[in-house]
Design brief:
The chain is of the alpha+beta class. It is elongated, with a radius of gyration of 39 Å. InterPro entries: Pilus_assmbl_Flp-typ_CpaB, RcpC_dom, SAF. This is Flp pilus assembly protein CpaB.
Length: 313
C-alpha cells in the first residue's frame, strides 16, 4: 500500500478519535434530566402545607420595641404576628391599638390586650377586686426554709404564748389557703397571664433564686374580709406559713375564675378558737351577784389597747 494512503487513513482515524473523545466529555458534563423531576411535586406540597397552616393561625398585635408609660401608640410601634393559638383577650388588628395610651411600661414583644392600657402596677394586677396584697415579715423558719414560690398556697398559723395578758397558750390556723404573690423581689403572673417580673438571663435567674431563698418578706393575697384578722395575727403572736399540696389544684381553680365562696370564710371563722380573746388577752370573769333577787345586767366590753375589760352598768 502506498505510504501516502496509509498516512491519510491514520490522520482520519486520529481526527475521529479526537471527535469521539470530545463528544464523550460533553455528554458526561450535561446534568441528568431525571434528577430534577421529583423536585416539582415536593415544592408544591410544601407550599400547600404552608398556606394551609397560615390560614389556621390567628393574628395578634405585638409591640416592636419598648414603650414608656403615658405615650400613645403609633402604627410604627406595633405589628401583627400570626400565632397558632392567640392569647385570650389579645388584640387582633393594628387599628385596635393605635392611638391608645398605656399606663405602664410595656416591653418589646409584649402582646397587647385591653388590660395593657389599664392603670395599676404589676402587684395590683395580680389580685382580684375582693383581694388585698399584704406583706408579711418572714425568716427561714416562717417561710418554709426559703422554699416558697409565687403561686404556692399556704396556711397562716398563729402561736400565742401564755403570759399575763393571755392565760392560755394556743396554736391555730387563723387564715387558710392564702396565695403567695411574691417572695422577696420575685413575683408570679399577673391576671392577664404576663410575668410580673421582667425576663432574666440564666445568670440573673440564679442570683434571683439566691435572693428568694434569703428573702425576709412574703406578699400574700388576702381576702378583704380577713384583712384585719391577718394584720392582727402579725402583731400578737408568732406566725408560721404551712405550704399546701399542689394536688389541690387551687392555682388552676383560681385562674379558672373560681372565687372563694363566703361559706369557706364562715367555715374558717367557726374553726377559730377564741381568736379575739386569746389575741387581746383573756377577759377577767365578772363576779356573780350574791343577792338572789338581783337581776344580772349585761356586761359592757371595753377594749383599751390590748386589754379587754367588762363593766356592768
Amino acid at each position: 500500500m502506498n505510504s501516502r494512503v496509509t498516512m491519510g487513513l491514520a490522520a482520519v482515524l486520529l481526527l475521529g478519535a479526537v471527535f469521539v473523545g470530545y463528544w464523550g466529555l460533553v455528554l458526561s458534563r450535561q446534568p441528568a434530566p431525571v434528577a430534577e423531576a421529583p423536585a416539582a411535586p415536593n415544592v408544591t406540597v410544601e407550599k400547600t402545607v404552608a398556606i394551609a397552616e397560615d390560614q389556621t393561625r390567628q393574628p395578634v398585635v405585638v409591640l416592636l420595641h419598648d414603650v414608656p408609660p403615658f405615650t400613645p401608640l403609633s402604627a410604627a410601634d406595633v405589628t401583627v404576628e400570626k400565632l397558632r393559638s392567640a392569647p385570650a383577650g389579645s388584640l387582633s388588628s393594628v387599628d385596635q391599638a393605635v392611638g391608645r395610651t398605656p399606663w405602664r411600661h410595656l416591653s418589646a414583644g409584649t402582646w397587647l390586650n385591653d388590660e395593657s392600657f389599664s392603670a395599676g402596677g404589676s402587684l395590683a394586677r395580680m389580685i382580684h377586686s375582693d383581694e388585698r396584697a399584704l406583706t408579711v415579715a418572714v425568716d427561714e423558719v416562717i417561710s418554709a426554709a426559703g422554699q416558697l414560690l409565687p403561686g404556692d398556697y399556704v396556711d397562716v398559723l398563729l402561736y400565742l404564748r401564755q403570759d399575763g395578758s393571755n392565760l392560755q397558750q394556743s396554736a391555730q390556723i387563723v387564715l387558710p389557703a392564702m396565695r403567695v404573690l411574691g417572695v422577696g423581689d420575685q413575683y408570679g403572673l399577673t391576671n392577664d397571664g404576663q410575668p410580673a417580673s421582667p425576663a432574666l438571663s440564666a445568670d440573673e435567674k440564679i442570683k434571683q433564686d439566691q435572693r428568694r431563698i434569703a428573702a425576709r418578706t412574703v406578699v400574700l393575697a388576702v381576702p378583704e374580709q380577713l384583712l384585719s384578722r391577718m394584720m392582727l395575727a402579725t402583731q400578737v403572736g408568732t406566725l408560721r406559713l404551712a405550704v399546701r399540696s399542689s394536688e389541690e389544684q387551687r392555682l388552676a381553680k383560681y385562674w379558672a375564675g373560681e372565687s372563694q365562696a363566703p361559706g369557706h370564710i364562715d367555715n374558717a371563722n367557726s374553726q377559730l378558737f377564741q381568736f379575739t380573746q386569746l389575741a387581746l388577752g383573756a377577759a377577767p370573769k365578772v363576779p356573780s351577784s350574791g343577792g338572789s333577787g338581783t337581776v344580772a345586767r349585761p356586761a359592757v366590753e371595753i377594749i383599751r389597747g390590748n386589754q379587754i375589760t367588762q363593766q356592768t352598768p
